[in-house]
Design a protein that fits this description.
By secondary structure, the protein is mainly beta. It contains three helices and nine strands.
Length: 172
């Protein structure tokens, strides 16, 4: 990892939701949309290692991330920005048995809480929503315009790392 490396503990909740109305999302505070290409790389014992290219209308940012799971709700994350050249070089050696993850991410703030909704081309009716919490016991303030299908916090089959190996069937 090169520049702007940071280490943080993430506490998050994750949900499968009905496909949201994109026009409604665009009206939310701090709304952004980006296209993401995520590739998993070989990592150390108990570690997830990935690179990500995130493209916005006006810029592209590449990052390298290493995550070490603490428990089902939290992980230690070490992340730093890398160059496009480094991204391309690292992407040549993906973790065996994985496929790149492509998605569109919609990010917004609702009642002071940050939400990320990932829309995958493999699914037509549902998406994944995450929100980070400051404390483990904090309640997620779910936006009224979001319909939750089910919570999948801690369900490893809905982690992007697992999805890169075996993409789950869409919830009906």
């Amino acid at each position: 990892m090169r520049k702007n490396t940071k280490t943080a503990v993430e506490i998050e909740r994750k949900y499968v939701i009905k496909m949201p109305d994109e026009a409604q999302l665009r009206t939310q505070e701090d709304y952004t949309s980006s296209s993401i290409l995520q590739i998993y790389l070989p990592g150390g014992q108990g570690e997830t290692h990935r690179i990500r290219r995130r493209s916005y209308p006006d810029k592209t940012i590449c990052t390298e991330t290493r995550k070490i799971r603490i428990d089902k709700m939290s992980s230690t994350e070490i992340e730093g920005e890398i160059t496009e050249e480094s991204f391309n070089a690292l992407s040549a050696a993906p973790l065996e048995g994985t496929i790149p993850i492509e998605k569109t991410r919609h990010t917004f703030t609702y009642l002071g809480q940050l939400f990320e909704i990932d829309v995958y081309p493999q699914w037509k009716n549902t998406a994944i929503m995450e929100t980070e919490l400051e404390k483990r016991e904090a309640e997620a303030k779910i936006p009224s315009f979001i319909e939750i299908v089910r919570e999948v916090t801690g369900d490893k089959s809905y982690s992007n790392a697992s999805m890169s190996k075996n993409f789950p069937e869409e919830d009906k």
